[in-house]
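Thread title: Can someone regenerate the structure for this chain?

I was given the following input by a collaborator and told the matching structure tokens would be attached. They weren't. Posting the sequence so someone can regenerate them.
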Amino acid sequence: NAFFKKKIEPASLKLGQYREGAFNLFGFYAASKGNAHWDSITMRLHFLREMTNNVAATKEVEAVILELLLRANGSEGGISGKAMSLSNLDAYLHKVEQLALWVAVTKPASAKRTLKIFEFLDAIEEEEKEGGDASKIEAISQEDKSSLREALVVSEFGATASGKKIAIALLKRLNAFVLAQKGSASGESINTSGDAYLEFILPKKASKKAWGNEWPDKEEQAQWINKLGNFALISNKATARESNMSFSEKKERLSKEVYSLTLDVAKMDTWDSDNLVKRLAAIVGLIDQIWGL
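Best answer:
Regenerated them for you:
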């Protein structure tokens, strides 16, 4: 069947490769290694894959990602059937990251979420017919971006399994960005460093002996314990004993981590509400650098 060969088979293949993280099998990807946009595209794809594979609400976003991968490979539309440029792919993926985060963190109603996705797909289609300038369209509005920024600050990520998965994906993305900014590694190597786990710096079961000086108020603990600023990525799952240690004891373990933002925590003298708020502000600052919220 010609339709199956031309449309269904390539789409199914690309979607499977994306879900497996086998980006090197994308024709455009392998051929463009070393291109100015390659590291950025790599970081974006790894982040989106982590989100769509692990956060159920973002699954629909795969429709946009698949469309872009097909166009980048020359399998869809475009002018005279030409493949989408890497600069445009990078710019579109930047907007898809915003969309995925907005869906995951602000939790819009299903109908609103679906409408956003299809409106963005339509906008891509129209823009690519006219030559393709990704800067002319947006996936989410300025109002959506403001809501997302606020939600990143106030959300209790540590209170649910899905919230923890979002936090892990987000912190991995931020660590990759920091390493890329330092020029310490390529996009591929900084995104494939194995499993990552979430450490509650102030533990959920903080004893008075270990944490009473820095966090004497139980209500203040409850206010901050599940916020994004209280997390660090670790490469090996901590035992219950390790998780509940005092900060001075935790620092030694955190100082041996591979994640740049975790090493920043290990350099601190104490972990109190002031330092937690400063760290949350630093995280939001990185998010602003990447996604311009």
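DSSP finds 14 helices and two strands in the chain.
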